[in-house]
Every structure is written in structure tokens, then in C-alpha cells.
Amino acid sequence: MDLGEGLRKAIAKLRGATIIDTKTIKEFNKELQKVLISSDVEVSLVLALTKKIEDSVLHKDLPHGISPRDYVIDLLYEQLVGLMGGSYSPSMQPKRILLLGIYGSGKTTTAAKIAKYYQDRGLSSALICCDTARPAAYEQLETLAKQANVTFFGIKGEKDVGRILREADVALKGKKVVICDSSGRSGLDEELISELKIISKSFKPDEKMLVINADIGQVAAKQAREFDNAIKINGVIVTKLDGSGRGGGALSAVNAANVNITFIGNGERLNAIELYDSKKFVGRLLGMPDLESLIERVNQAVSESGVSKEDISAMNELTFETFYAQLKTMSNMGPMKNMLGMLGVSDAPKDIVEKSEEKMKKYKVIIGSMTKQERKDGSLLKESGRVNRIAKGSGTSEKDVRELLADFNKMKKMMDKFQNDRDFKRRLSKFMPGA
Ligand SMILES: Nc1nc2c(ncn2[C@@H]2O[C@H](COP(=O)(O)OP(=O)(O)OP(=O)(O)O)[C@@H](O)[C@H]2O)c(=O)[nH]1
Ligand SMILES: [Mg+2]
After folding, report:
1. Which residue, judged by its Cα, is nearest atom 29 of ligand 1?
2. Residues 187 and 327 occupy one common structural domain
3. Is-contact 157 75, C-beta < 8 A?
4. End residue of a domain, out of 29, 49, 84
5. How confident is the model at residue 418 (pLDDT cuts 50, 70, 90)?
6. Which residue among 51, 181, 338, 383 is the one 20 to 30 A from 149 at the CA level?
């Protein structure tokens, strides 16, 4: 069970309790302890959190106008936010960022994600390969730079980072954000420290960011402290939060070590990066909707999918063409699980989510095999032979194509209903500019 699921279960139980008394609070706290400790949050932090809840609820007069249940949940939210740290908002000034960390923590991927992050916000960005140890580190970063649409600099086979950085300085003049990717090591040893010192001396980074894999859980505190003592870091980036049950442990540990969490990585794709905000993180864990992030993702996905503003306004009318554009946009938004999480729906059955994702992929391929006319006018598909041709062309079965047609017709009916529903439109327009 992951941290969010465990917390939501504990809350659901509390909501279901007939009365809130000493026994229910003690049980609630016990459950919290179990969930937090199994997510690798450090025991003393967990005990402090549950003690706070117990003290506030059992030994104080509750504020008027709020039910004891809501009061406890509110308190839990605040405590968790405190445990998980603050929030990060980077300056949009020119800067040089050095990424460092142990093997496989996600440095190279994160370097490209951050370069894209700043480039997308109007700051021309570049990546420098200073990983002179690992074979193919050069090619990896070069490929990622291409995907991120940012400039790349490296000298293949060169071991002297001083020379790489001197030449990079000349080649990357005028770039607003320059990010340097460094070699990993199995741990923080003398060799790594001296190499990082050499890089720091020639690169003169404004920010030194330690990249940590969420999987190491509370060990993150020790790592953050060690790196900070050795070379003074400005912050930590926690990666692989998508696949780790120990993310809560890692975040709380870094916060307890008094080091700022800056970005978090939650996927392999280059847009799977977010500014850290403990309020948003905890909100999602507890199943509270995060519409702000969702809308930001939608807007970004729309611009990435190449769908134009005109296409979007034409989406009022559902055709296979507009449906195709919507599917493309949706696949750019990242895993459906993340999207649902932002909507506060975190416990959708896994197999249903996976099936829907598969279906979306299949539908994209099927529509890809339709002719232009068919996409504009779905009624053409009633003519014999067309369904068979599309199935063959897309490597699917006629049954698959008919399933798409049935789903499409259902959607169309629903859309027509919404179009005639003024109240719905008014509510929607609050969330979606242009809807
Ligand atoms: N699921 C997931 N995978 C990630 C994330 N960040 C990185 N990865 C994957 O983790 C693996 C290692 O990432 P790299 O960026 O090469 O790590 P590194 O720290 O540069 O590794 P070295 O250069 O060998 O020290 C790759 O397969 C990445 O795709 C993330 O946020 N989520
Ligand atoms: Mg690397």
C-alpha cells in the first residue's frame, strides 16, 4: 500500500467513526504511524506528528464551527505539510546549475528536464556534458538535449573537465540557463569531491543541486547532509517519486536535514518534472483536487501536441478529427494515474486505468488509418468495406473499430447534451479558458 492510499484509508475510517473520542484518535494515530513508518518516514518524526494530533484533539477545546473530524483531518494536513517541507519558486534570471549525485540517481534525465523547463518559459537553455566517466554519457545527454530542444555542448572522449568548461563558456555565450551534468559515483568519496570542486571552480555554478532517487527513503537525510558538508549544495531534486513507495520518507528526511527540496521528478518523460510544493504534494496524498496543476498540464500538453487554438475551438463539434487531436493532447499529459491524482481521484482501480490507457492508444492508431473524409464525416463508415479496411490498416480487428465507433457515438450524444446545457458551460468556463 502506498503512502497516499494508506492515509486516505485512515481518514476514511475516521470519517466513518460514530464518535470521535480517545479511542478513535488513538486508533487513528496508530494507523498513521503504521502507514508513515512503512513509507520509511523516520520514527521520531512520525511520533512527533501523532503526539501533536493527540495533544491538540484530546487536551484542547476544539474551535467552534468545525466538526471534530474535520479538525483532525485539517490538523493532519498541516502536520504533514510541515513534515514534508516548503515550496520552491526559482528565479527566472540567467543562471548556471550544476547537477550532482550518486550513480543512477537521475542526474542526466533531470538535467534535460530542467533545461526544457526553463526553455519552455522563455529562457534559452543549454546542457553541458561533464560526465567523463561513464561510456555513452555524451550520447545520452546529446539525445536528450535534442528531445528537449535545447543546445548541447560536450567534447567526446575528453577527460579534462576544465577544458570542456572553458570551451563551453565560449560556445554557449548568450544562453540564459546553462546546466552541467556530472559523473556519478557509488558514494561520496574523495575522488568525487575533488572532481566536483574542480568543476565548481571553472563552472562557477549559481546553484548546486543534489539529485536523489526517492527509493533511498530516509537515507536521503544522510546523503543531503554529507554532500552539503563537503561542497555546500543549494538544494535537492528528488526523482522517481512515481515509482517509489518511499517518496514520503525521502522528502521528510531531506526537509529534516534542513536542505530545500526544489524540483521533483515523477516519470521518465521530459515533462515529468514539477516545482516542489509540500502543500500540493500532501493535498494529492490526501485526495484533494489540484486543479491549478491540472490546468497547467492541459495547457502545456495542448501546446506540445501541436493542436492549434482553432482546432480547440472547433472541438465543440466532435468529429474523428477533433477526437484524434484530443487523444494526442491527452497522451502528452502523461500517465492517466497522475492526471486522476490531480483531480483528487487517487484510488481508481489500476486495471481500469490501464485498460483506458490501452484503449486510448488503440483508438489513436485506428483513427490514424482513416481517410481525411472519414475523419470529418463519421457516417461514411457505415458503407461496407470501410471498417474492414481500417482494421487491416491499423493492425486491429473489426471488433476494435466497432468498439471505437460505439464509444464515439456515446461521446457525441453526451457532447450534444452538454452543448445545450448552459449551466454546465458556465461552470466549465471557470476551469478552462476558451471552453
Ligand atoms: N520513473 C522514473 N524514472 C526516472 C526518473 N528520473 C530518471 N529516471 C530513469 O532512471 C534511470 C537513470 O537515469 P539517469 O538520468 O541516467 O541517471 P544518472 O544519475 O545520470 O546516472 P549515472 O550517470 O549513471 O550516474 C533512467 O532509466 C531514467 O529514465 C523519474 O523521475 N521517474
Ligand atoms: Mg548520467
Report:
1. 268
2. no
3. no
4. 84
5. low
6. 338
Ligand 1 in reach of 182 Cβ (< 6 A): no
Mutation to probe ligand 1, out of 263, 268, 276 (largest number of atoms < 8 A from CB): 268
Whichever domain contains 362, its CATH number is 1.10.260.30
**Domains in the chain, number:** 3
> Among residues 101, 118, 104, 114, which one has the least CA distance to residue 272?
114
Ligand 1 site-directed mutation target among 100, 109, 266, 338, most atoms within 8 Å of CB: 109
- Provide φ and ψ at 26, rounded to 5°: -65, -40
Task: Quick: pLDDT tens for 329-350.
Answer: 777 777 777 777 777 677 777 7
Question: CATH number, domain at 49?
Answer: 1.20.120.140
Do residues 279 and 335 share a domain?
no
Task: Report if residue 89 sits inside a domain.
Answer: no
Is residue 276 domain-shared with residue 296, that is, in the same domain?
no
**265 and 315 belong to one structural domain:** no
* 140 CA: nearest ligand 1 atom: 16
Asked if 267 and 197 sit in the same domain, the reply is yes
- All residues at 6 or more sequence positions from 362 whose CB lies less than 8 Å from its CB, including other chains: 396, 400, 404
Q: Are residues 366 and 266 in the same domain?
A: no
What one-character-per-residue DSSP string does 225-273 give?
HHHHHHH--SEEEEE-TTS-TTHHHHHHHHHHTT--EEEEE-SSSTT-E
> Is 131 close to ligand 1, i.e. is its CB under 6 Å away?
yes
Query: Which pLDDT band holds residue 408 (cuts at 50, 70, 90)?
Result: confident
106-122 confidence digits (pLDDT tens): 999 999 999 999 999 99
The alpha helices in 132-259, defined as continuous H runs, are 137-148, 161-171, 190-203, 219-231, 247-256
239 lines ligand 1 (CB under 6 A): yes
Between the CA of 203 and the centroid of ligand 2 the distance, in Å, is 18
Which residue has the CA at smallest separation from atom 4 of ligand 1? 268
**pLDDT at residue number 435:** 40
By residue range, what is the domain housing residue 360? 291-431
Residue-wise pLDDT tens digits, 246-271: 999 999 999 999 999 999 999 999 99
| For the CA of 264, the nearest atom of ligand 1 | 31
CATH number at residue 255: 3.40.50.300
134 lines ligand 1 (CB under 6 A): yes
CA distance 385 to 236: 59
Q: Which ligand 1 atom sits closest to the C-alpha of 104?
A: 21
One domain for residues 108 and 80 = no
Are the C-beta atoms of 123 and 150 separated by less than 8 Å? no
Q: Is the pLDDT of residue 2 over 60?
A: yes
Ligand 1 proximity of 338 Cβ (cutoff 6 Å)? no
Q: Is residue 12 included in any domain, yes or no?
A: yes
Ligand 1 contacts CB of residue 268 (under 6 A): yes
Q: Is the CB of 424 under 6 A from ligand 1?
A: no
- Claim to verify: residue 310 and residue 402 sit in the same structural domain: yes
